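Sequence, please.
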């Protein structure tokens, strides 16, 4: 896939069941799957009834669950709204909705059908809403929850602006899924509202303009990524640690 793919209304297209292959629901739930053909990544938006459980069968690929509302429990871990569960590949684990819960589940579709590793970490980590590395001021709020290090292969972060913003035309070396969590952005002449998902192939240059009242984005990538801008500066490694953001918490893995 070489072009951007956009789904404007994942919430409005939810259907009974849980669309993420390798994860079986026990209890009422609805979900919508964003998995463009030929793209390496996928995302499910799901609404779980209170008490609904998700059961993992071991499969390949590290995954991220972001809690939009409600809360999830995984053993003695409790993940509230704005928090993240990082699920190592090969994990066989159950997650339970403590109340009606809306979540986003990010992972890979290019590893579907691949066997799970025979050995590995196979853990679930909870990262709170503050993230692990962050930077914020009156105009910007960016929080990294995972950044493709030796402990977890995927990168996941939140970034938002409180006022007008126009990005530099740029590209990233990794495929990415962007979810518009609040406000809206405009890609070219196309408005992309809150609740929409965008698939961006690695190396594809794009730019966007944010809503004048601000916006918030969630971003998932499968591995370390380099940023290349249109200003002619050399590409640089992205991530909270790599770019000198303040460490909020020390990850416990």
């Amino acid at each position: 896939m070489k072009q951007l793919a956009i789904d404007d209304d994942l919430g409005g297209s939810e259907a009974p069941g849980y669309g993420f292959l390798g994860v079986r629901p026990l209890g009422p739930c609805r979900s919508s799957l964003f998995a463009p053909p030929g793209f390496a990544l996928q995302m499910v938006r799901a609404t779980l009834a209170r008490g609904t459980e998700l059961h993992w069968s071991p499969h390949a690929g590290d995954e991220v669950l972001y809690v939009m509302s409600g809360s999830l429990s995984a053993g003695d871990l409790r993940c509230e709204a704005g928090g993240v569960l990082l699920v190592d590949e090969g994990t066989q684990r159950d997650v339970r909705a403590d109340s009606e819960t809306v979540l986003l589940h990010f992972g890979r579709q290019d590893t579907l059908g691949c066997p799970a590793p025979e050995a590995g970490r196979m853990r679930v980590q909870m990262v709170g809403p503050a993230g692990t590395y962050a930077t914020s001021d009156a105009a910007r709020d960016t929080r990294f929850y995972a950044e493709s290090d030796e402990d977890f292969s995927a990168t996941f972060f939140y970034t938002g602006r409180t006022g007008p913003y126009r990005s530099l035309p740029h590209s990233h070396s990794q495929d990415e899924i962007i979810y518009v969590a609040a406000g809206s952005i405009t890609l070219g002449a196309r408005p992309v509202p809150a609740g929409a998902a965008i698939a961006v192939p690695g190396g594809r240059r794009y730019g966007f303009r944010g809503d004048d009242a601000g916006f918030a984005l969630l971003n998932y990538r499968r591995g370390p990524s380099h940023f290349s801008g249109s200003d002619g500066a050399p590409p640089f490694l992205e991530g909270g640690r790599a770019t000198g953001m303040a460490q909020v918490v020390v990850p416990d893995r």
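Residues 10-127 form a domain with the Jelly Rolls fold (CATH 2.60.120.10).
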